[in-house]
Amino acid sequence: MNIHERLLNWSYYVTMWLDDPSPKQPSTCRSFEKNYNPELGNVMEEDYPDDMPSIDWKDGELVESCMKELPEHHRRALKAFYISHPYQSNYSIANYLRINIKKFENDLQEARTRISKEINRKLSRN
Fold it and tell me: What distance in Å separates the CA atoms of residue 113 and residue 73, rounded to the nearest whole number?
């Protein structure tokens, strides 16, 4: 498993503890007809996707333990890229973090390298 796959697994591991990371939407409309039941049933029912990614729990714990040993700016870069804004461009993430895009990309690459070395060091000890 390469470092990108490990970090994606870590992001799933971390966000699985949340009740629901998406914003809440009311299941009824805000009108006098909110008690109306359509013939097709409640169209705003929560659907849980069948294609939920499988999570390697032990690897998620390992990456989380290594994440705690990184400097703050590396943790912020990884968290923003993999958890907070996973579908945004690097420019948007750098703007959110209020840093230059080159600094963000540099921090992200250094963080991946450092966490990869830390994971390899911990795995070689076991």
Answer: 14
Cβ 15 vs Cβ 83: under 8 Å: yes
Of 83, 64, 75, nearest to 18 by C-alpha is 83
pTM: predicted TM-score of the whole model, two decimal places: 0.72
Q: How far apart are CA 59 and CA 1, in angstroms?
A: 10
CB 8, CB 82: distance < 8 Å: yes
Residue with the two structure tokens 């966000």: 15
Query: 84: which DSSP letter?
Result: I
Residue 69 tokens read as 């040993």
Confirm if 94 and 101 have CB atoms less than 8 A apart.
yes
Count, residues in the chain:
126
* Model confidence pLDDT, tens digit, residues 20-75: 555 455 555 555 666 666 666 655 555 555 556 688 999 999 999 999 999 999 99
Write the DSSP symbol of residue 48.
P
11 backbone dihedrals φ, ψ, rounded to 5°: -65, -35
Residue 118 burial (CB count, 10 A) = 18
